[in-house]
């Protein structure tokens, strides 16, 4: 009698983003992305001022060097293989392939780099799970076109995805079109390359940009399936369940309105059309989405699976000003008094992950994939019996509790393809641009001031996750 409900072919692994760990921002013909010119590489959180975007990289942007995966990929992939990874989620840097975004021809050196990555993964039997656009819109597309606010980006994105789908059609099976596509509502520059000041960006223009991304995503799904019918193409959303602060029906309505903002994206990806609730929202806010003649038909190209990130839940109320707002949360929300928080104010809610899994599966009856989950913490390197390490029992506790809830969701009947923990190796935080906010099983010797040797060291959680994978989840229940 086993306690683990994880299927035999479950895809265990880890997830990264090119802009947060590759480095080599200007090597081998790569163009600049929006990440390269954001001071310190961070993004403004709700309630804070927007970062001043520059035209050239600034020396304090840790993402320019990242953790130098570009030159150390063999070492890092070998460590992932040692943990037993079945899958590795990564992104292709769009501006490595098309340096300006609107180039006629791709950059061969960029394509060749990812060939090497996929070949190295294949050597260890690790499936790549590739995000086509992960917060790294080419800077030229932001500056010259205002990013996804301009419909022209659909054509540039189409050229890019045709290029990489064709090039890697025999090396990659699993694809994601956009990372956390719903985050464009809250971080339009980072997520959508939109340079309009967020305070001046109208709802009309913002939701028109959303439409362009959704059409581009559906077009990519159509193209991918035509190039290789065996491709499995998914959407990727930032999942954040919401609880009502009270039993007041108005608070319940506030939850529904908040969650509909996020469901909008997965509803269209899974069902191929705009839901009725958003039509009411558009009408009440004087928003008219401009459809090209082909858009309605294109949106019918629905995804093969739903993938999502999960870090926290939030609370909602009809009168949110009566409560304290959660700190460090890109999507806003109210602090939940029943939950503990991480060092960065992200509330820790393992049961929320089970709720998300059941909600998505009940809603869509499509396979799911957890492609981000993890704990950012300030790790301290200490001397261990086998050399430097980190005694990160807090990370083990966080992941163990979340994975037990994943197991419960599997027992509930949810169909789940895999689980990739965020940042299996330390990388630069997307939201705060710190390296001290560490997620990995592997410690990287680099500091927030840019110093450090970039040496890699296994944390205590490295061997723990290795046992979880080897036992297909049984080790989660060891005393």
Describe this structure in words.
The chain contains 14 helices and 14 strands. The chain has helices at residues 18-21, 69-83, 94-97, 108-123, 139-145, 152-167, 188-192, 203-227, 249-271, 276-284, 295-298, 350-364, 393-412, 460-470; strands at residues 11-15, 87-91, 127-131, 174-176, 232-239, 242-244, 305-310, 314-316, 368-372, 382-384, 387-389, 416-422, 442-444, 456-458. The strands form four sheets. It has an eight-stranded parallel beta barrel, surrounded by four helices. A hairpin with a 2-residue loop joins strand 10 (382-384) and strand 11. Helix 2 packs parallel to helix 4 (108-123), helix 6 packs parallel to helix 8 and helix 12 runs parallel beside helix 13 (393-412). The protein is α/β, with parallel strands linked by helices and 479 residues long. The chain has one domain (11-477): Glycosidases (TIM Barrel, Alpha-Beta Barrel), CATH 3.20.20.80.
List keywords for this structure.
single chain, 479 residues, alpha/beta, TIM Barrel, 8-stranded parallel β-barrel, two-stranded parallel ribbon, 13% strand
């Amino acid at each position: 009698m086993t306690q683990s409900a994880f299927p035999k072919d479950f895809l265990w692994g880890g997830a990264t983003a090119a802009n947060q760990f590759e480095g080599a921002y200007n090597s081998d013909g790569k163009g600049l992305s929006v990440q390269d010119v954001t001071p310190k590489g961070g993004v403004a959180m709700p309630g804070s001022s927007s970062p001043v975007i520059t035209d050239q990289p600034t020396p304090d942007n840790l993402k320019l060097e990242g953790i130098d995966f570009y030159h150390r990929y063999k070492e890092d992939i070998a460590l992932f293989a040692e943990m037993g990874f079945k899958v590795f989620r990564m992104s292709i840097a769009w501006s490595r392939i098309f340096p300006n975004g609107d180039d006629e021809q791709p950059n061969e050196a960029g394509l060749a780099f990812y060939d090497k990555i996929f070949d190295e993964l294949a050597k260890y039997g690790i499936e790549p799970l590739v995000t086509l656009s992960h917060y790294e819109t080419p800077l030229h597309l932001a500056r010259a076109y205002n990013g996804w606010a301009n419909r022209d980006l659909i054509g540039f994105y189409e050229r890019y995805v045709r290029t990489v789908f064709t090039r890697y059609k025999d090396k990659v099976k699993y694809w994601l079109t956009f990372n956390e596509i719903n985050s464009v509502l809250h971080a339009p520059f980072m997520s959508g390359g939109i340079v309009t000041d967020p305070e001046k960006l109208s709802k009309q223009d913002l939701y028109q940009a959303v439409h362009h991304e959704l059409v581009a995503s559906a077009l990519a799904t159509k193209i991918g399936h035509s190039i290789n019918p065996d491709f499995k193409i998914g959407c990727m959303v930032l999942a954040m369940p919401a609880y009502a602060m009270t039993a007041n029906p108005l608070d319940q309505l506030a939850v529904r309105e908040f969650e509909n903002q996020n469901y909008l994206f997965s509803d269209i990806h899974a069902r191929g059309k705009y839901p009725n609730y958003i039509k009411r929202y558009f009408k009440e806010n004087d928003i008219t989405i401009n459809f090209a003649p082909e858009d309605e038909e294109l949106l019918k190209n629905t995804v093969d699976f739903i993938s999502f990130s999960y870090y926290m839940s939030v609370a909602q109320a009809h009168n949110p000003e009566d409560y304290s707002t959660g700190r460090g949360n890109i999507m806003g929300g109210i602090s939940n008094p029943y939950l503990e928080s991480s060092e960065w104010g992200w509330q820790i809610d393992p049961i929320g992950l089970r709720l998300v899994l059941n909600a998505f599966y009940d809603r869509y009856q499509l396979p799911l994939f957890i492609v981000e989950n993890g704990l950012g913490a300030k790790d301290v390197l200490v001397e261990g019996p086998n050399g430097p390490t980190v005694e990160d029992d807090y990370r083990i506790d966080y992941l163990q509790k979340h994975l037990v809830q994943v197991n419960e969701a599997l027992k509930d009947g949810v169909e789940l393809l895999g689980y990739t923990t965020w940042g299996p190796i330390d990388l630069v935080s997307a939201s705060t641009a710190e390296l001290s906010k560490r997620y990995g099983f592997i410690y990287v010797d680099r500091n927030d001031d840019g110093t450090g040797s970039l040496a890699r060291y296994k944390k205590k959680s490295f061997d723990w996750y290795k046992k979880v994978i080897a036992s297909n989840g049984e080790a989660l229940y060891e005393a």
